[in-house]
Amino acid sequence: MRRARPDFGQTARARLRELIQATAPVHPDTELALCARWAELPDRARTSAQLLGRRTCGCEGTHGVFPRCDLACTPCYHVREANLVQVDGDHTRQEVDRQMAHLRAVRGTGQHAQLIGGEVTLLGPDAHAAALDAMLRHGRKPMSMTHGDFDYDYLRRLAIGPDGRPRFALLRFAGHFDSLMLGRRGIERPRREADLHQHRRRFVEQFERLEREHGVPFDLAHNMTVTPRNLGQVGEVVRACLGMRFGMMSFQPAAYVGNPRRWREEFDEVTIDRVWTEIERAVGTQLPWRHLQMGDERCNRSAYGILAGGRWFPVLDDTDPRDLRVRDAFLDRVGGMDLERQRWALAIAVARLLARNPRLAPLAAGWAARLVSRIGVRRVLRGRPRSLTFVVHAFMDASVVRPAWEALERGETAGDPAVRAAQERLSTCSYAMAHPDDGRLVPACVQHSVLDPQENRRLRELLPLGER
Ligand code: SF4
Fold first, then answer.
1. How far is the CA of 231 from the centre of ligand 1 (A)?
2. Which atom from ligand 1 is nearest to the alpha carbon of 425?
3. Domain limits at 114?
4. Across the chain, what does the average pLDDT equal?
5. First to last CA, the chain
6. How buried is 359 (Cβ within 10 angstroms: 0-12 exposed, 13-18 middle, 19+ buried)?
7. Which residues line ligand 1 (CB under 6 A)?
8. What is the pTM of this model?
9. Over residues 308-330, mean pLDDT
10. Whose CA is nearest to atom 3 of ligand 1?
11. How many structural domains comprise the chain?
12. CATH number of the domain enclosing 104
């Protein structure tokens, strides 16, 4: 009997295909997904500033994978039943895998995805690592969302495998710290935001220690819910966090979503504008945002910049037409290119990009020279420059999301202006969650306002507390 010989021609062709894909400026699946996202955006959202459908398909998040949390926030976006569901590592891994596979199929690769639900560190370190691993396998850039109340030993066991080697090339975490959270160890009932600074610092220091001792780099975000009670302390938090190694500071004005028993204040008094003004006051400069928009400006506002020598500088000067031309060229030509890949692959991808678009090189050089001159050579060399993004993301109240979603499902435009505005925002949503069973992606607002109650009732039957 003749033994089957490997077909070297086929293997070589497959390897070549892989190499071409790994060094393509934009993965073909991502390119298709971006085109589809752009095509489904409403006309009013297709502006020269729009990032959706050009740079990214939007952020992604998990749901129903570990609903439980051990802190009590006022407000809390989770339904009451969430805390009656057992945390189960196998369930988390399987469900994360399914949701991420669906996102990979419809959105391509290289998209940012949040490992989110209840409190992620209630998962054991191995189960947490398995969930991150599943996300990476499906081409996501995972970020673990936590209240930050965990010890260094947990972080080390998550980051370092049983063989003593790092499991991940980079760890992304978002720590949520604000004085509306009750039950944190060492400070059960904070009275002011300043009471939490030592906990914010401790959170960052644990990652710095991990980097020092095991060489695991990190990327951290700081999240804070804002209500009338702590609005006046936003500036205090920003000033304190400027000295910590957060790459992003994100603020969420509270909305009436989730558990009504945790609604204590008049949340409507806090608007995106008011939060933004507080941040600008603390940073000591205007934070330009209109020239780079993720989705709808009623949902999101972001300012991308560099912190150097204690001062913040925007990466693009929105008043300089040359910088706006750079933005246009970047979004048109570089588009969804993933800059996070192995160095050799990135070098070839950049070379392929420049071969197709030779005008990009002088444009980029001019932009870099202007940025350095704005920051100042001295600060660039001595001021430890690092990127720092400010974000405000305003969720919507459940009372408008439900009718807006139902009208969208029926293909109708709502008559009520508030519901119609919610419909517009949902159709330009930049934060989606996957439902592989019916092949859909839904906005996070819809997940929390409409789908969470039923989903958690189901999970409560599947994973009742105290039985596994
Ligand atoms: S989740 Fe809601 S608030 Fe956030 S981008 Fe989507 S529609 Fe807007």
1. 21
2. 7
3. 58-317+388-461
4. 95
5. 53
6. exposed
7. 295, 299, 393, 395-396, 425-426, 429-431, 443-445
8. 0.95
9. 98
10. 395
11. 1
12. 3.20.20
